[in-house]
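Try it yourself: sequence plus 3'-phosphate-adenosine-5'-diphosphate, in.
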Amino acid sequence: MIADIEELSSAEAIERVVEFMSTLPTENGWNSFQPLRLYEGFWTFPHFLESIILAQHRFKPKPGDIFLCSAPKSGTTWLKALSFAIVTRNLYDTSNSPLLTKGPHHCVPNMVGFEYKPDVRQPGIPLIPTHAPYHCLPKSVLGSDDVKVVYICRDPKDAFVSMFHFAANRRPKENEHIAIEEAFELFCLGRSVFGPAWDHILGYWKASQERPEKVMFLKYEELMNDSELYVKKLAEFIGYPFSFEEEQGGVVKKLIDLCSFENLSNLDVNKTGKRHEDDDEATNKTFFIKGKVGDWQNHLTPEMANRLDNIVEQKLSGTGLSFELNNGSS
Ligand code: PAP
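Structure, out:
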């Protein structure tokens, strides 16, 4: 438990957090060069954790802030693009949106590094993305009625497969990648980035049930299946509803098309650009792989799928939440 870092200087607070993190349980995740730390029931990389703990204690929200939350590989890039397009639609039209020349992760930078780069929040863009579990959001945000939280989740089988490929792409080329069976075993034990995946999902699900006016819960699969319905709901929830005239004029459809996998993944910036100017590893194209529901079927055996389905089903049992298990077409 870390306390009293609210009033320290940034440098002192960082030092205290780094010291605290060194006391946390540590295990290898999918590779030995990036160990995972266990904090408040979740495994994650130290560089994510440092920002999360600092923000937990020190982040000061502004009224109207909107947190865009997700477990990794569950639709973050898509949610960023859609939310950015929604809140900036009076500034740009779909032919000159910054999304066309910068990647979604550049238009809406992550909360990672927040303490070091206070300017990371673009003026007039109230969107703050994070992979933090619900209970690890900034205390100020949990206690505020003025901040909205949108969460997107995805069938853990597809999120796992997406993460497996992402990690393979990002590993140093001299390192052999973990076998999918081994990575899957760790995922099923909950030892993955921001795992256990089901606990991440459940934290936001319960919050959305308790405070539906504050927390919106989206599923990647539903957004894919009926984009128009869910994009309208999203815009309304975050306080930028579409007018009747906009709906009649096809604005919703245009934003959906702008943010579609097909459109974004074919832009030059997302084929060859970098997520951040100073980031040599995360090229934008690593965030656009297939963009499909059910790709797990090409990578998991039926036994693996059943095993993960059973774990998830058991964990979600009685909560009112479920995924279309074993059905790649939903
Ligand atoms: P992140 O957590 O690292 O930010 P995130 O964007 O959540 O990643 O997930 C990436 C997945 O979303 C990829 O899925 P795949 O590996 O199964 O293909 C990526 O292709 C998909 N994705 C990215 N952009 C979009 C989009 N506009 N529409 C639908 N899916 C998308």
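One thing you can check immediately is this: The first helix runs from residue 10 to 21.
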